[in-house]
Amino acid sequence: xxxxxRRAQQLEKEKERVTHLEVGQTALASKVQAADxxxxxxxxxxxxxxxx
Length: 52
Known about the structure:
1 helix; rod-shaped; 96% helix; mainly alpha
C-alpha cells in the first residue's frame, strides 16, 4: 500500500544519510591521524634542534 511505500522510501533516505555520515566520519578520522603524525614529526624536529 501507499503507506508501506512511503515508509520504505523514508528508510532509504535514512540509510543514505547514515552512509553519508559514515563517510564524513572516516574522512575526519584520516585528518586526525594525519595531524597526529604531523605533531609527532614536529616533536622529533624540536628534539633534534634542542640537542644541537
